[in-house]
Structures are given as structure tokens and as C-alpha cells.
Amino acid sequence: MTVNHSGGPSSLHQRYGPPSAPSVRGLLKRWIPRSSSTSPTPCTQDAPLLARVLHARALSPDLAHNFLQPSLLHLHDPASMPDMDRAAARLLDAARQRQPIVIYGDYDVDGISATAILFHTLHHLVPNALVSTYVPHRLDEGYGLNADALRALAAQGAKVVVSVDCGITAVQPALVAAQAGIDLIITDHHNPPASLDDLPDAYAVVHPRRPDSSYPFGDLSGSAVAYKLAWRLCTLAAGSPRVAANTRELLLDLLALASLGVIADIVPLVGENRVIARFGLSRLKSCSLIGVQSLIDASGLSGDRVDAYDVGFKLAPRLNACGRLGHAREAVELFTTANHTRANEIAHQLTTLNNERRAVERAITDAATDMAQLAGMTSDHRRAIVLAHPDWHQGVVGIACSRLVSLFHRPTILLAQRGDECHGSGRSIDGFNLHLALESCRDSLLSFGGHDMAAGLRLHAHRLPEFTERFIEHANNALTPEHLTATLLHDADAQPHELSLDALRDLARLAPFGRDNPPVRLRLTNIRLDGRPRTLGADGKHASLFVRSRDRHHDRVLRLVGWDWASRLADIPAGAPIEAVVEPKISTFSGSPTVEAELLDLRLLQDPRTR
């Protein structure tokens, strides 16, 4: 018997599997093969492992070729994005006339990267251009364009303000900008209004998903939209699709910045995002931007390359910590104007801030977990979590939201109460549109913005109970109890002998992994534990298991590593027949490359000899 986080005890076979396959994992998951029903041609178990994985992901041979061999030629012409040429022409003209230009960014990795991309592009094309940056303070000003900041920028002489990673719903600030004599250019990727009439009345609105857009790929990150504008600025300045060699080198360096935003903002890693991530990651270690190298060094990434995991769990948290606990202008400085000494200083400050952020995050997560359970928000009857507390740090609640989503697998909103207002963030699960849910509660809120999976919001404290019940009611109607159990998708069935170094190098061609292109997961079937599982790590929290095929013709031992699995080992007898879902990996821990697999879930099977 295991305990489901949705509240009551439940054995796996009662809900999701046959009686012969109980899970020993405390957090129940449904094992579901990735759908390959879109293909009329079956893929047999005898096919190469890579072919089976591609088939499971509905990648036909034509699609697979481009996916496995991405090219910069697969990027679309930026001029096909609405208002792109109008925006680029105005910025280039302002730079050449030395009219003050302000790049108005956001305080997360996507916004910081986007800000730096346009800063370097404009200074490269017009070295004496009057270009500065502005990033609002997360706690004092909040997300996005704000009227007071625009008035202040106008008073300081700004003639053009270009937003990055924000502004698509800034109707009132756009009016203020026009009244103040500012030509406002908005570049954004967040959910746009459904009607052109509801767009901000700005000089230009650059967005791949504008209601009138025919741009071929709509899921760009904010940094990717800024990169498209930078690309168009370069070709417009050159008067040709071909640019000078030094400009081409700059655009390649800026791909590295764009890849940070693409990965950190968890946009789908397919299409153009995948191309940007793939080539940007390969450029990070050789990028000529001083701040990028200082950040990589301060993060302890001394290897030959930086991958998506390194960005998501080492570089991005440091950049975000600056905006969460301090002011993101230092992270912008790191990527724009800092010299070597100053860049190293900022990079190490970001590491210190990130360590502080982790401690604050743990405290909020622990408190919110207890509060959610006491409030009944982890049951099948209340299918969302909405909590507020005056002691919570507004800049960290978003990360704590993600932790609670992982624990309880339901939409979560955490708010910091400051006086008579609550400010905070929400995170969602697949199948629940968070932005749409907030739209349904619009009249309970002062403001909100974001997209399907993440959002920010603000409301009066006295309206919190009303909003909580409305949001949970929306979640109850949109989600079934089954939605509240995490789904563990796997690509294909496999045997240990198939996981050779060559096979794993083939699978690695699917990287970089992220949203809509997850790491390869395999279900190992017809296997048996080889010996007794052992604990792993200095604190004994992890587990090391060896398995081998029950097929004597393909006898091979494979090591599985289960992070935080030590507490479950008592339920796994030596020699037991099992099946498991794993992520295969190439480990270089011992010096030479070896194949092992990360254990994600495991089921004990009934031994036929005991029947």
C-alpha cells in the first residue's frame, strides 16, 4: 500500500495497472507510452532504438532529418513578423540620429538576455548611439511596462523605448508613452489579446502570435523575439540579407544569449527554439561576451561544453536570483557594460544571492506544503492550491510554486501579502491553461499576465478568499482526479543489451531537451535485479541497483541510479523480477564513458515460479 498525495491510500493496481505490477514509489505515477498513433506504419521492436523513439514522438523520416540535423537555415525570415520592419527602421534611424533609446527589459533570464541582445546590436551597428537600459524593480514596480517609469524616462530625454519580454497588454502605459512624446516599440511573446483592437496603441508591436500574424512559429521566447529584431536590424543596416563577417560573428554570439532565455523560460524546445538552443548552447563556451564567460566560470562549469541542464539549473538560477532578491540591473550590467573585473564581481555576487534564494525558497516551500494540506487543497475535491502569507518573499514564491506543483501535481498560486495587496505567481500542469483560469477571475484581480503554464498576479488582500474559491472552482471544473496524478511518459520498451554507448550517442542527437522535447525515457521490461540494491552517496539517500535481462540470449548487467530512492529499498527484494522506467545516460564519473540509467519509477512483478 502506498499513499497518494491527493489524500488517501491507494495501491497502484486499483487505479492504473494490473495486480501483478504494484509500484514501490511513494508518489504514484501513470506509465503511458508516447502516442505514435499518428503514424499508420508500426515500428517493430527489432527496429533500432533511435527509430523507435522517433516513431513514438511522431517524427516521420522527413521531420526526423531536420530534427536530428538542425541548421541555421531553418530559422524563418524575421521580416515576416508583424511590425518587424517598422520597429527595426525606427530603431536604426534613432541610433544614427543619436536620439536617446531605452531598452525596457524584464527581470528574469529571458528579459535580461533580450535586453543585452538589443544593446549589443545597436552599439555594434552605430557605435556612438545613445542606448541605455531599464529594468523595473520586481518588488517596487512589478512586472512589465509601467506608466511612472515611462514618464521618468521621457523626462530624462528618451525618444524611443523598446520593450523586450513584456508589454503586449500594456494599453494604458502605451497611451502615457505617446502623451510623453515617446515612440514605444513593444516586443513580447506572452499571450496577446484576441483582437487587434485590444493591442496597445504603440509605434510598433512585434509579436509572433499577434491576431494578424502569419509568422510560421509562434512559440518564441522573449529573447528569441529580440534576436529576430537584432537580425533584422543587421540586415537592414547592411541593405542586404548578407552581413559583414564581424556582424555575423556578433549574431552568433547573440545566439548564446538567446539560448539562455529559450531554455530558462521553458518555451517548447521545438522548431526555431530548438535551433536557437542547439546553436546557442554550442556557442556559450566560445562566446566573446565577457559577462557570459564570468557567469560560466562562477558557476563551476569548467568542461568543454554547457548543456541545457547547466543553463536550467546553474546559470539561470544565478541570473534570476538577482531579480528576485536584489535588482536585475546588475545582471543586465554583467551582460552589457561590465569589464573583466566588474563582471567577475557581479558573477560571484549572483552566486551568493542564489544561495540565499535557495534557503528562502526551502522555507516557503515547507510552510506552503503544510498550509496546503491543512486547507484541504491537496485532496481530489479541491484541485488547486492558492495561498498567501505576509512573511513570504514575493521574488521567490514563483519557484516555490514549481516545487508544490511537483509535489502535488496541481495548479498552484502563492502570494506575498504586503499591506492591503497580495502579489505573487502561479504555475500550472499540462492540460490546465493558467492564463485562461486567471481570465475567468479577472474581476477579482488588480492585474495579471503570463501564459498557459506560468503567470504573475496582483489583488487586494480582502478579495483573496473570493479569488481562492473562484480559482479552485475553475480548476475543479477543468480537471478530473486523474489529472492530479503525474503521468510518466516513456518512448519505447527496451532491454539492457540495447543500451550501448553508440545507441546512447544516437539518442543524444535529440538534445537539447526541454518542454515538448523531453529526455528519452525507456521502459525496461523482462528484467531482474542482480543482487541486492545498495545505498549511494555520503548521506545514504540515493540508491544503486543492478539489473539484467531475464532473456539468457541477451545477458547484460546495467546499473540504475535512483536519486532519493534509499527509503524505498526495503520494498525491493534481491533478485526480484521488475520493470522500470529510466532515462539512459552516459556517465564519465569513473573517467571513461559508461552506460547507466537514472531510475524514475519501478514496479515489482510477480515471479512465475511463485504462482
Question: How would you explain this protein's 3D organization?
Answer:
The protein has 611 residues and is α/β, with parallel strands linked by helices. It folds into three domains: 12-57 and 491-610, Beta Barrel (OB fold (Dihydrolipoamide Acetyltransferase, E2P)); 79-353, inorganic pyrophosphatase (n-terminal core) (Alpha-Beta Complex); 375-480, Diaminopimelate Epimerase, Chain A, domain 1 (Roll), CATH 3.10.310.30. Helices cover 38% and strands 18% of the residues. It is built from 18 helices and 19 strands. Strands 3-2-4-5-6 form a five-stranded parallel sheet, sandwiched between helices. A five-stranded mixed sheet has the order 7-8-9-11-10, sandwiched between helices. Helix 4 (84-96) crosses helix 8 (222-238), helix 5 packs parallel to helix 13 (329-336) and helix 13 (329-336) packs antiparallel against helix 14. The model is unreliable at 1-28 (pLDDT under 50).
Topology, element by element:
Elements: H1 12-15, E1 30-33, H2 49-56, H3 61-68, H4 84-96, E2 101-104, H5 109-125, E3 131-134, H6 147-155, E4 160-164, H7 171-179, E5 183-187, E6 204-206, H8 222-238, H9 245-264, H10 271-284, H11 290-298, H12 308-325, H13 329-336, H14 340-374, E7 385-389, H15 397-408, E8 412-418, E9 421-427, H16 434-440, E10 447-450, E11 454-460, H17 464-478, E12 487-490, E13 492-494, H18 501-507, E14 522-529, E15 534-536, E16 542-549, E17 557-562, E18 577-587, E19 594-604
Helix pairs in contact: 4-8, 5-8, 5-9, 5-13, 6-7, 8-9, 9-10, 11-13, 11-14, 12-14, 13-14, 14-15
